[in-house]
TrEMBL record:
Protein name per its UniProtKB record: Thioesterase domain-containing protein
SUPFAM superfamilies hit by this protein: Thioesterase/thiol ester dehydrase-isomerase
């Protein structure tokens, strides 16, 4: 951990631990070639991913280091990348804690999926490529466990986001219950206008530095009178979490793309999101097509615009996102993020 340039406050946090053991990425997960985070590493966008477990304190500390060669220096790592990694990290921490407690391991199992997460931006550090995280379980019952954590720019000690994950842990697989029908029409509004090819390409971007063909879009429309945007999406391979469903961070990203584009088209301003609230109702299988995303303004004020977006197929809603966009300057809060894991 000493190879990176670390802020003294972060080095002090690391030095306070005396029992850290390496926690291999996805050590207790089945090996799947399509895992999204693994492919960030394999494709060279992440230079390294290191995490360590404290058996005495039941904590995780570690680093996410993005490539300075593959990612342009003037491009900030998006919050969606950080909470995608955080989603994996918290699930793994819960498993490591369960493995260190035989009674928990027996009754809770190791499978799980996120059902809700809430992200609040607390600071900005556009040049950051190295991120430090620290996570710990603060309470635990038969049905829930609360994990609190913080993510920082490792070199400046700036706290970047706070996130709350609510995860359901199950011993069996997850049934999707998806309806294999295609909604119609895309947008029933008299002023509906088709989105351009460039706008459709923007909607399909997972992160500014990833290839364009992981997600495909071929149709999209905007209604300024109803303040609504609709598009269709298809998901490619290499986008899974620990099982055969689309990674939660990927779903959150495409929903945010739609909300951000709607905000920009309606206001003419660059999107400055300060809060995201995502609910995962049912997982989306990999390589699924004919998914539909809608985004619509929920409320407006002189200081912010709130947009609600969802991904669905037929009448089946998979994931929803409520995004708050600031119309002014970001007010930085200093707080940790809190993760709630539900053992169903």
């Amino acid at each position: 951990m000493t190879a990176l340039i670390l802020h003294p406050a972060i080095r002090k946090r690391i030095d306070s631990y005396t029992d850290l053991v390496p926690a291999k990425l996805h050590a207790f997960w089945p090996h799947v070639e399509t895992q999204f985070v693994n492919n960030l590493l394999n494709d060279g966008y992440m230079a390294s991913h290191k995490q360590f477990f404290s058996p005495q304190q039941h904590r995780f500390v570690g680093f996410w280091h993005f490539s300075r060669d593959r990612i342009p220096a003037d491009m900030a790592i998006p919050e969606t990348a950080l909470y995608s990694l955080g989603d994996d990290m918290t699930a793994e921490l819960a498993t490591w804690i369960a493995k260190s407690r035989p009674q928990d391991n027996e009754k809770k199992g190791a499978g799980g999926f996120t059902v809700n997460l809430n992200i609040t931006k607390t600071g900005e550090s556009p040049p950051a490529r190295s991120f430090f995280f620290e996570a710990w379980m603060s309470s635990n019952t038969d049905k829930t466990a609360v994990i609190e954590a913080a993510v920082f720019d490792a070199e400046t000690n700036v706290k970047l986001i706070v996130v709350s994950f609510d995860m359901s842990i199950k011993k069996s697989g997850i049934a999707t219950g998806a309806e294999h029908t295609v909604p119609s029409p895309l947008l029933d509004a008299p002023d509906a206008e088709s989105l351009s090819k460039a706008e459709l390409a923007t909607l399909s971007r997972l992160m500014d530095f990833l290839p364009h063909n992981s997600v495909t879009t071929d149709r999209g429309a905007l209604s300024r009178s109803t303040k609504c945007l609709v598009t269709t999406l298809g998901f490619g391979p290499n986008l899974t979490g620990p099982v055969i469903y689309i990674h939660g961070g990927v779903l959150g990203t495409v929903l945010y793309n739609a909300a951000a584009m709607l905000f920009q088209l309606l206001t003419g301003k660059d999107p400055n999101a300060v809060n995201w609230d995502i609910t995962y109702k049912s997982p989306v299988p990999i390589e699924s097509i004919d998914n539909v995303i809608t985004a619509q303004v929920k409320s407006e004020s002189t200081q912010s615009v709130t947009i609600f977006s969802k991904i669905m197929r037929g009448s089946k809603v998979f994931t929803t996102l409520t995004t708050v966009f600031s119309l002014g300057k970001l007010e930085v809060e200093q707080s940790n993020y809190r993760i709630c894991i539900s053992h169903a």
